[in-house]
Every structure is written in structure tokens, then in C-alpha cells.
Design a protein that fits this description.
binds S-adenosylmethionine; about 30% helix; single chain; Rossmann fold; about 230 residues; two-stranded antiparallel sheet
Length: about 230
């Protein structure tokens, strides 16, 4: 893949993290976490709510290993999954094969800021743990693309990281570049931000969305968006 992105380190991080990526959903980390069960709990609560919110032709933007795919796939007639990383997509392909849904899925390896999105094509979109890695100009680009690629009355779901007292207790910064390490000790500098409810209102106002908070946990949230 031709790669002109500024996000080389983020891209490499997720590519190398592919085999261990889903550990955090199960409360497993390379560093010690005071209450790892809260991750499992939030993931499981979101899994229960997610299927009723996805339908029709769906795009999973920065799909990663396709963690949410087995949860929502039955509700969709067609699913487009896009990510920049070869190795996360290899994990995702295993899920597609196991689910036997090759015919209704299309996997695209590409940078979402370079790949052209078709106009008014999708009934729904899933955006998991992407916006917390994006700076302002990238958010502009993502949401402008989303606006033109969703059908009228199309819905999008954002699942991402909550700025909570539990996260503060772990010594995290609300926003900034942090060190992330993999099991083999390889370290990366990764931009990450956490969201509070006013942040989501700011996003909704800026991009003219209606955003409904569906789930607000200790570490994860899920919000459903529609275009105004
Ligand atoms: C935290 S993971 C989220 C994976 C999945 N959506 C989930 O909810 O579990 C972030 C993903 O975004 C992908 N990503 C980040 N920036 C991207 C870009 N510009 N284009 C394509 N994929 C990108 C990474 O490769 C990684 O798989």
C-alpha cells in the first residue's frame, strides 16, 4: 500500500499489535491496571446494545481485527471493512471465514484519509476507537467523508474511550502523546485523547450531527449519530 500518511508510528503500532490487540477488551494489559474487569464489563455491555443500531449496507471504518463484526454482522446485508494494517486485516479475515460471511463482506486495505469513499452509499457506519487517535484536521476529514458517504437518515456509531475517574486514577492524560508498549517490549509514541460528554456535544455541534449517548461506561462509551 502506498503510504503518505503522517501517522506512520500509529500505523506500525497497530500492525505489530494485531495478534494481541483484542486483549484489552478482555481486561489484559502489558502494564498493571487496578481494575481490569471494567474493560471486560464495558465491552460486554456495548456488545449487547450494538446489534440493534447497525443495519443495511455498513462500513466499519478502521475496523482493526473486526472485534465488533461477529456482534453486528447478522443485521447487515453488506459490510465494507477498511483499515490500513495488513496484520489486523489478517485477523479480521479469520473472523470473516469463521462466520462464513465472505460473500457479503469486502475488506479494503487503505488509509481512510486517502481512500475515496463513495457518495450516499451506506446505511450505517461503525467507528471503533479511531477518533481518540485523531487530531482536529483528521476529525474534519473523517466527519466530512462520513457526511457524504452515508445515505440520507444513515446512522453511525462511535465506540471510544471515556475520560473518567478510573482513567484519571491510572495516571492518564486527557489528551497527548503517550508511550504504548507491546508484549515484546517494543515502544511507540501514540496520540490519544479521552472524551467526556461535553466533548461529544462539541463534536455534534461542530459537524452538525445529532449524537445520542447509548452507553457511558467507566472506560468505554458508545454514541449513535445521525446527520442533521
Ligand atoms: C484502536 S484500533 C480500533 C479497531 C476497531 N475499530 C475496534 O473498535 O476494535 C484503531 C485502528 O485504526 C486503524 N487506523 C488508524 N488510522 C487509520 C487510517 N488513517 N486509515 C486506516 N486505518 C487507520 C489502525 O490500523 C487500527 O487498526
Amino acid at each position: 500500500m502506498k503510504n503518505t500518511s503522517q501517522n506512520q508510528e500509529l500505523f506500525q503500532y497497530y500492525n505489530e499489535r494485531a495478534p494481541e490487540y483484542e486483549d484489552f477488551y478482555r481486561g489484559k494489559f502489558t502494564t498493571k491496571i487496578p481494575d481490569s474487569a471494567i474493560y471486560k464489563n464495558d465491552a460486554s455491555n456495548i456488545q449487547k446494545l450494538l446489534p440493534s443500531l447497525v443495519s443495511g449496507k455498513c462500513i466499519d471504518i478502521a475496523c482493526g481485527t473486526g472485534f465488533w463484526l461477529p456482534i453486528y454482522e447478522k443485521k447487515c446485508s453488506r459490510i465494507i471493512l477498511i483499515d490500513q494494517s495488513e496484520d489486523v486485516l489478517a485477523e479480521c479475515a479469520k473472523k470473516i471465514e469463521k462466520l462464513g460471511i465472505e460473500k457479503k463482506t469486502e475488506v479494503i486495505r487503505g488509509d481512510i484519509f486517502i481512500t475515496a469513499f463513495p457518495q450516499h452509499e451506506y446505511d450505517s457506519a461503525v467507528i471503533g476507537f479511531l477518533i481518540s487517535h485523531l487530531r482536529e484536521n483528521e476529525l474534519d476529514s473523517l466527519f466530512n467523508n462520513l457526511k457524504t458517504s452515508l445515505k440520507h437518515k444513515g446512522k453511525f456509531l462511535i465506540i471510544d474511550s471515556v475520560w473518567s475517574k478510573e482513567i484519571i486514577a491510572m495516571g492518564r492524560e486527557k489528551e497527548g502523546v503517550t508511550k504504548r508498549s507491546l508484549k515484546d517490549g517494543h515502544e511507540f509514541n501514540i496520540y490519544k485523547r479521552y472524551f467526556d460528554k461535553p466533548d461529544l456535544r462539541t463534536l455534534a455541534d461542530k459537524y452538525s450531527f445529532k449524537l445520542d449517548i447509548i452507553y457511558w461506561g467507566k472506560v468505554f462509551f458508545m454514541t449513535a449519530g445521525t446527520l442533521l
